[in-house]
Amino acid sequence: MVCGGFACSKNCLCALNLLYTLVSLLLIGIAAWGIGFGLISSLRVVGVVIAVGIFLFLIALVGLIGAVKHHQVLLFFYMIILLLVFIVQFSVSCACLALNQEQQGQLLEVGWNNTASARNDIQRNLNCCGFRSFSPNDTCPASCVKSSHPCSPCAPIIGKYAGEVLRFVGGIGLFFSFTEILGVWLTYRYRNQKDPRANPSAFL
Q1: Which residue in 82, 83, 161 sits closest to 125, CA to CA?
Q2: Are 193 and 6 in contact, with CB atoms under 8 Å apart?
Q3: Could you read off the pLDDT of 2-32 as tens digits, one per residue?
Q4: What's the CA gap between 72 and 32, in Å, rounded?
Q5: CA 95, CA 1: separation in Å to the nearest integer?
Q6: Tens digit of each residue's pLDDT (9 = 90 or more) over 122-150
Q7: pTM, to two decimals
Q8: CA distance 87 to 91
Q9: Which residues fall within 8 angstroms of residue 129, CB to CB, at 6 or more apart?
Q10: N or C, which end of the chain is more exposed by having fewer CB within 10 Å?
């Protein structure tokens, strides 16, 4: 049977959802690993990563069950959800790739001011204090505070990595957004195909 038939569409859809399942478990595992080794103490950051992993896992589970059973309703909802995720993810990925240095700095400063626990993680891991300046009256968990040398601000250090991280996140996001639109196309194609093992006159 040439690729494009019922069996090929089913196998491709199952393989795609298995890939999504592995990615979702990887996200949950990375969040648990970061908490376990003390690299991340921000419950908000960990909660977002775990929530994204669980959401992706549920989507993959719906798609996998719908593909295996050729369930029309599950496949329809899977196709709609995947299309919405594609629109959001594609937009966010393009925004990450389009940010200039000034916009990156503004975005980092907003995040710095709104996440106290993540701010402490950054200061401790990068050995810096404050975003653009540091007052001796402020608390800082970095080891440089205990030394005689003045602590460096975190903004220049974070700025070195921000562009690379945003490009990496944007590239990964674009890659998975194209797999999602592929999943939408495969699901639409698969829903309108007849199962050759069933009654030829029936449409399942």
Answers
A1: 161
A2: yes
A3: 456 778 888 899 999 999 999 889 888 887 7
A4: 36
A5: 42
A6: 887 788 888 777 776 677 777 777 776 77
A7: 0.72
A8: 6
A9: 123, 138, 140, 142, 144, 145, 151, 152, 153, 154
A10: N
What's the CA gap between 157 and 105, in Å, rounded? 11
Domain ranges in the chain?
Answer: 2-131+152-192
Residue 49 to residue 133: CA distance in whole angstroms: 30
Supply the DSSP symbol for 200.
T
Both structure tokens of 64: 């996998």
CA dihedral 79→173→106→158, nearest 10 degrees, is 150
Residue 42's contacts (CB-CB under 8 Å, 6 or more residues apart) are 115, 117, 118, 121
C-alpha dihedral (80, 85, 90, 95), degrees to nearest 10: 140
Among 25, 72, 84, 22, smallest CA distance to 50 is for: 25
Q: Which residue has the tokens 């993959």?
A: 60
In the numeric block, which tokens belong to residue 98? 């389009």
Chain Cα centroid distance, residue 92: 11
Could you give the CA distance from residue 129 to residue 126 in angstroms, rounded to a whole number? Answer: 9
